[in-house]
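Thread: quick sanity check before group meeting

JM: Hey all, I'm pulling together slides for Thursday and realized we never actually wrote out the predicted structure for the chain we discussed last week. Dropping the sequence here so it's in one place. If anyone has concerns about the input, flag it before I start.
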Amino acid sequence: MMLLVIYDVSDNGKRTRLANSLKRYGMSRIQRSAFKGEVDSQRVKDLIRLIRREVDQTDVVHLVPLDPRNWEMRVVIGDEGGRNDGPATVV
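JM (edit): ok, ran it. Output follows.
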C-alpha cells in the first residue's frame, strides 16, 4: 500500500530522527515534513510503534493510506524539486 506520512514536530532533534527513520523505511521525502512510500501492513505497524517512541503529545503525525490512482490524480502547485513521482497535474 502507498502511505503518506505528514508530521508537525517542533523539536529539531526529534524531527530529524523521525525523518531519518522514515528514510530508512524506504519512504521518500515529498516536502519538508511529508514522506510517501510503499509499505506492507507489517511495516505500517512497525512505523506506528517507531513514531510513538519518537514523538510526544505536543507533536502530531498523520499516516494516510493512498490508492496509487489517487496519488496520480494529485494537483501539484509549485516545484516538486525535480522529483518524478509519477503523473500529476502541475499548476
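AS: nice. The chain has three helices and six strands. The first helix runs from residue 12 to 24.
JM: adding both to the slides.
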